[in-house]
Design goal:
Elements (H helix, E strand, L loop, with lengths): L1 E7 L3 E7 L5 E8 L11 E2 L1 H17 L6 E8 L5 E3 L9 E2 L7 H10 L2 H8 L8 H11 L1 H6 L2 E3 L1 H8 L5 E3 H5 L4 E2 L4 E2 L1 H7 L8 E3 L4 E4 L2 H7 L6 E7 H8 L6 E7 L3 E7 L6 H5 L5 E2 L6 E2 L2 E3 L3 H11 L1 H10 L3 H8 L8 E3 L17 E3 L7 H25 L4 E8 L5 H11 L3 E4 L4 H13 L6 H8 L2 E5 L3 H14 L2 H11 L1
Length: 501
């Protein structure tokens, strides 16, 4: 038998089947484009997203006939919701996280409730990226859509719904809306009243790892799934990734490199302090019961490499197709051997923490006629890592204990990037045996829910394994420390110019 983890990300989805030992036995990927109808807007066509998810599930189901799927759970990007009518029609696109249209609405919310009050209820920093601000914008600007909506579904509960199961959202994903009470573990009447959002427009919630129902036979047949597959609540993608990396105690931090680069440490008690607010660090339920997580992230992580691939890497794409390789691997081979003479600010989708500045832009500084392609590639990787180094320092100043990073995601397959991270962070970076930690975390939740593992702890001890540890090198760390002091001055220096652009 096998367990299925489905991950619905910002620019692509994955479906991965694992056996009970945590080994990948089948996987599929689908990519979909972000829609930018106006400057600062970022949307997804949920019809296309579902098509890609369904195709991925169908492919994995076809390859697991000898190890049939028994249960699945979904990890999902946060903030984005799809308006769905009572008869199941998708009424509009989903507004993704890093969309700036609701920034002014966030300021309005801040005028009616302090950041600390909001944080103590929802664990979220006040921001226009939250679902709450997006729903207020929809009600004001798309009353035709808002008025027809039966439910606003996150991609976790959206996939459950499309698979014929009751749409239920787990506590970690619900928290990303800024309308969920993280202490009471329920939708907050105070925040709903502030937003003017009817509770009935939101799905029911449940802890991660809760069995919800079985995929109906008709839909199972359409996707090639066996009968009786159980749908289980999953979680927000980053806490799912933390689970898949074994981050269930203090001192361990997930470092996920996907579209977004993200740190996720775990806590036993919620940390709802002024220091967390100043860093725009959230604090909300982990997908592991009785634990909480915080996130530090840069909005454009690996997606900057994807941009470079699409715009400047046609030769590598063609060579990769001929040789059956990854274009990213070829680009990383071209990366300069020494520290790049140029520096890159990776705010290609606005900033992440600590600024949460959706108007910030990417920048490359230090260009000359001697600058080569490999210098730019290395500057991309260094820039993302420098941005996370700044977040690392702020987390530690807020009292977060950080001893070791557990690396997952596409970037975790690059030995050169992992060693660079260790040198820049000045902390050990551990590559996990399975880099697809997000889907593995979802699969663990599914396995525990149907009793294949006695507990989360037992599952992790059985299947989550480190592959290699990268230690910081003193000489490189010292040189990077000097470069970092330059890097941290870039955003404040060009912020006004970026906003004017």
């Amino acid at each position: 038998m096998s367990l299925l983890g489905v991950d619905v990300g910002t620019t692509g989805c994955k479906a991965i089947a694992f056996n009970l030992d945590g080994q990948i036995i089948a996987q599929a990927y689908g990519e979909y484009p972000l829609i930018h109808r106006r400057p600062g807007w970022s949307e997804l066509d949920s019809n296309l997203v579902w098509q890609k998810v369904a195709d991925a599930i169908r492919k994995v189901a076809a390859e697991t006939k000898s190890d049939p799927i028994k249960a699945f759970a979904v990890s999902s990007q946060g903030e984005a919701v799809t308006p769905v009518s009572e008869d199941g029609e998708i009424l509009d696109t989903a507004i993704t996280t890093f969309d700036s249209r609701a920034d002014e609405i966030a300021q309005e919310i801040g005028g009616r409730m302090s950041k600390l009050q909001i944080m103590r209820i929802t664990g979220m920093p006040l921001s226009g990226i939250t679902t709450m601000a997006k729903l207020i914008w929809l009600r004001r600007n798309r009353p035709d859509v808002y008025g027809k909506t039966w439910k606003f579904l996150g991609y976790e509960d959206f996939v459950l719904f499309k698979l014929g199961i009751k749409p239920v959202e787990d506590w970690s994903l619900a928290s990303r809306t800024m309308m969920f009470d993280i202490i009471r573990k329920d939708w907050s009447e105070k925040m709903l009243n502030l937003a003017g959002v009817d509770r009935d427009l939101l799905p029911e919630t449940a802890p991660s790892g809760t069995p919800i129902g079985e995929v109906p036979d008709k839909i199972a047949d359409e996707l090639g799934l066996p009968k009786g597959v159980v749908g289980v609540t999953g979680g927000h993608d980053q806490p799912c990734g933390a689970l898949g990396a074994g981050v269930i105690r203090g001192g361990l931090v997930m470092d996920a490199t996907g579209t977004v680069e993200c740190f996720a440490p775990a806590f036993t008690e919620p940390v709802l302090s002024e220091e967390m607010i100043e860093g725009n660090f959230a604090c909300y339920p982990h997908v592991v019961s009785d634990l909480y997580v915080t996130l530090a992230f840069v909005s454009s992580g690996g997606v900057v490499l994807r941009w470079f691939r699409d715009v400047f890497g046609q030769r590598e794409v063609e060579e990769a197709e001929r040789k059956g390789l990854s274009a990213y691997d070829l680009l990383m081979e071209e990366m300069s051997d020494d520290i790049s003479p140029v520096m890159l600010l990776p705010h290609f989708s606005g900033s992440g923490t600590p600024y949460l500045d959706t108007q910030s832009k990417g920048a490359i500084l230090g260009l000359s006629l001697a600058t080569g392609k490999g210098d730019i590639i290395r500057a991309i990787v260094e820039g993302v890592s420098f941005e996370m180094k700044y977040n690392l320092e702020l987390l530690q100043e807020a009292g977060v204990r950080i001893d070791e990073f557990r690396a997952i995601g596409g970037g975790a397959r690059s030995e050169r990037w992992l060693q660079m991270k260790a040198d820049i962070y000045e902390k050990p970076v551990v590559a996990m045996d399975v880099s697809e930690g997000v889907c593995l975390g979802a699969a663990i939740l599914a396995g525990v829910a149907i009793g294949e593992y006695s507990s989360i702890q037992e599952a992790i001890e059985h299947i989550v394994r480190p592959r290699r540890t990268y230690m910081p090198r003193a000489e490189l760390s010292g040189r990077y420390r000097e470069r970092f002091e330059i890097y941290r001055r870039i955003y404040p220096a060009i912020r006004e110019i970026s906003h004017r652009l």
